[in-house]
Write a structure and sequence with these properties.
It contains 4 helices and 10 strands; from the N terminus they run βαααβββββββββα. The chain is an alpha+beta fold. The protein is extended.
Length: about 230
């Protein structure tokens, strides 16, 4: 499968801009709440039971499961029924909003995975969140100079490049920058990159500094110095 990501600048209406900022604010709250829940659970497992402080330590029952993605996603669905901030989206768009918030929980889950596998630092609370993801696109969402998104409807874009033919929009990310709002669309094609022909070999070539050319087989080729030979 071939995947391409194109970026377009958005030209949202005032209502759409307010809706985008509202989604970003809710995503930030969900991310920080889920991060605090994980940190509290981990802190409660580090404290000795005979000397813990009732002021600075958060006590969690021993049988409480670790708040991983599945645990937090289930609680998010329950919280949406009573939390006014999570219910701030219209009834028609609740399913799409849930998907956006679930992507926020996945973002946090990836941060914890990278902390363990790549040795990165502990995830930090976000003072600002600049983007969110729509993981699924609507049908017939492409048109000249505009794009149809869940919850936002048709939104105008500055079409700086043509939409790739024969490819389908799979997901979209809205990014808030100092220069405005941008839409990053991931297009996918069912075509795959062809394999090398039987009996043929590929060779990687890189221009170097000490050597003129370095190949993927380890061969180093010195610079020919044609002009130096003519001067002599």
């Amino acid at each position: 499968m071939i995947t391409l990501t194109y970026q377009y600048k958005l030209k949202p209406t005032h209502h759409q801009e307010a809706e985008i900022n509202q989604i970003i604010d809710v995503c930030k709250s969900v991310y920080n709440y889920a991060l605090k829940e994980r940190k509290d659970w981990l802190s409660s497992r580090k404290s000795p039971i005979n000397s813990c402080s009732i002021i600075s330590e958060y006590i969690i029952p021993a049988d409480t499961p670790y708040p991983n993605y599945n645990y937090q996603a289930k609680n998010l669905t329950t919280a949406k029924k009573t939390n006014p901030k999570l219910k701030s989206v219209s009834a028609k768009s609740r399913h799409e909003n849930a998907q956006v918030l679930q992507q926020t929980l996945k973002q946090l889950d990836r941060a914890f995975s990278e902390m363990k596998s790549l040795g990165k630092g502990f995830p930090r609370f976000k003072k600002k969140m600049r983007s969110f993801v729509f993981p699924a696109m609507l049908k017939n969402c492409l048109d000249c100079g505009k794009f149809k998104l869940p919850q936002l409807g048709w939104i105008k874009i500055r079409q700086s490049r043509p939409i790739p033919e024969g490819m389908v929009a799979k997901q979209a990310r809205i990014v808030k920058k100092a220069s405005g709002y941008y839409l990053m669309v991931s297009f996918a094609s069912s075509e795959s990159v062809p394999d090398n022909l039987v009996g043929k070999k590929s060779l990687g070539i890189d221009a170097g500094i000490e050597s003129f050319v370095a190949t993927s087989t380890g061969k180093l080729i010195k610079a020919p110095k044609f002009l130096l030979g003519q001067l002599q």
